[in-house]
Amino acid sequence: MTDNNHHRSTIEVMEAHVSVRRFRDEPIGHDLLETLIEAGTRDSTSSNMQACTVISITVPEHRKRVAELCSDQAQIHASAAFLAFCADMHRLELCAQMHDVTCDELGNTEAFVTALVDTALVMENVAVAAESVGLGICMIGALRNQPFEVGEALGLPRHVVPVAGLCLGWPAEVHEPKPRLPLDAVWHRERYRDDDDLKRSIDAYDGIIAAFYESQGRHVDDPRWSKVMCNLLGKVAQRADTGRFANKQGLNVQRAEG
User: Fold this and answer.
1) Which of 56, 57, 84, 181 is a good FRET partner for 168, with 20 to 30 A between their CA atoms?
2) CA-CA distance, 92 to 106, in Å (whole number)?
């Protein structure tokens, strides 16, 4: 473990964030992993529901199977630890059973959104805690590529859905942080900003991020952020099973996809 990270403030750790995809062949101790996950659970949580479950995947054959379901990304195989974060209302269902209470409310959209928010907060807490001790992280949204198969691989019961994975490991390399949108594109005052103002902010960011991408040889056809995002929209639509799996699990969305 590197010691030179301990003097950094939390804000400095967050501002230095980069996704790491190459890791050293060095394990993460069980005690440290436990500390990181416990820190994650100290997130804010709606009405103390704590509607998140974390599943660590360490058995090689199991890791290989889950990686294959996540587009077989190399960083999943290379990471010292891989965690699957799941939106979990199943524990509340068990609470209802323990007190002979019906729990039809778990099948509404608000319950689903509550569990998603809780899960995202836990995951981000774990990520920041990991980076604070010198670990690198990479979030894996591809855990939702094949949710039915992932649900089977992870043995997910009713009212539990996979949200995202998290690779953890000691970085083999660290890149420069990627520029983010200018604050005036994200921080609005009192009311949502006028579209023309937003387009000007996006246009300014296009120039900044294009230079960054060009320095890394990425998105060579058109490195502007606005154009890259247009291309990404089609990929989002490919995850149509997300809503169908949530409905199957009893965490219903009001408009089923597909």
Assistant:
1) 181
2) 8
Give 254 or 175, the one with higher predicted confidence: 175
Q: What is the 3-state secondary structure (H, E, C) of the chain?
A: CCCCCCCCCHHHHHHCCCECCCECCCCCCHHHHHHHHHHHCCCCCHHHCCCEEEEECCCHHHHHHHHHHCCCCHHHHHCCEEEEEEEECHHHHHHHHHCCCCCHHHHCHHHHHHHHHHHHHHHHHHHHHHHHCCCEEEEEHHHHCCHHHHHHHCCCCCCEEEEEEEEEECECCCCCCCCCCCHHHHCCCCCCCCHHHHHHHHHHHHHHHHHHHHHHCCCCCCCCHHHHHHHHHHHHHCCCHHHHHHHHCCCCCCCCCC
Strand 136-140 to 81-88 pairing: unpaired
Residue 97 and residue 220 in one domain: no
- The verdict on residue 121 lying in a domain is yes
Q: Is the whole-model pTM more than 0.85?
A: yes
Is residue 242 in a domain? Answer: no
Q: What is the largest CA-CA distance in the chain?
A: 61
121 in the same domain as 32: yes
Please count the structural domains in the chain: 2
Residue found under tokens 């199943």: 90
pLDDT digits (tens, 9 = 90+) for 103-138: 877 878 888 999 999 999 999 999 999 999 999 999
Q: Is residue 97 domain-resident?
A: yes
Based on the fold, state whether residues 92 and 190 are members of the same structural domain.
no
Residues 167 and 203 in one domain: no
Residues 108 and 189 in one domain: no
- State whether 64 and 170 are in the same domain: yes
Residue type for position 17: H
